[in-house]
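Work Package 3 (structural annotation) set out to generate three-dimensional models for the target panel prioritized at the project kickoff. During this period the team completed the workflow that converts sequence records into discrete structure tokens, so that structures can be stored uniformly alongside our sequence database. As a representative example, we reproduce one entry of 219 residues exactly as it appears in the project archive.
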Amino acid sequence: MTTDWNPLLRDQFDQPYWADLQAFVEDERRRGPVYPPRDEVFAALHHTSHGATRAVILGQDPYHGPGQAHGLCFSVRRGVARPPSVANIHRELHDDLGVPPPVHGNLERWAAAGVLLLNTTLTVRGGEAGSHRDRGWERFTDRIIEVLSARAEPLVFVLWGSSARAKRPMIDTGRHGVVESAHPSPLSAHRGFLGSRPFSKVNALLADRGADPIDWTLT
């Protein structure tokens, strides 16, 4: 990890859980497909530095289908079919800000704009959603949330779904904004995600704290 995250997270690499976690993931890779590829596990931290982070979108675990996960929550590479959750995110983005839905599901432009697209579990066994949960990744990603919450510069945490919303107690809400709703998946989007206007809310919270808005355009 060669970004400004390294000194902030380096203490985790000496923890016993970290060695156990990495041994588990390597054993899983010997047994079958694990997503994302090794060189993309920490892509969210490479795409969005600590200093550049202005908002955080918390996902759960990576997509478990071939060619989908590339280290940014909810995102897929261009040329990969849009997962239903991304289609719902695009729909809400259009309804909220009038941004035309793109034909792809790639969210790298958001990452470049300062949106940390962080899954709480960073790997998954192919074809088995949730298969790498409770193995140690959550300790690592909780530490990322703690580091961001302790930052003096304001940011906004976007919590979609019960797993993400469970992280709210870790956030200094006196310093940082929080936007939360149901998850954008087809199973829950109609229970409060659609119509929640998260993107305009993020920008309003940033403006309230004297920070510049995020350009949510996807091209």
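The radius of gyration is 17 Å.
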